[in-house]
Design a protein that fits this description.
The chain has 130 residues and is an alpha/beta fold. It is built from five helices and five strands, in the order βαβαβαβαβα.
Length: 130
Amino acid sequence: MTILIVEDNATNALILKRLAGKVTDEEIVIEADGSRALSLCHNTFFSMLVVDQMLPGMSGLQFVKAIRMLHRYDDVPVIMVTADQDPKLRETASATGVTGFLTKPVDAVTFRDLLAAHVGHVPPPRVAAR
């Protein structure tokens, strides 16, 4: 299985990838643009998504809404990591389908614990009957 990190800041993406690598041996892919990440999700099944809220192409919330419309992503954990301090964002994110929410700067232990709680808990994608 593979984890997708959608983060436009290269330094933050590298930090998240390294932290995730301490929790799992799964392949970790980074994409900086929300629209390109969505295209990737159409072509590749990811077992977990880590998404920044402020992205070029589309917001993290828009990305999550689009992902949740793909039924094979119904049960895939989505962790939102954001510098946005709007108190309503967490509530909106949860209603959109985000399963974990962290604000930047990310606490390494909290991030690893959150990933560890979700790694390996995703069934394979559903295949539509013909």
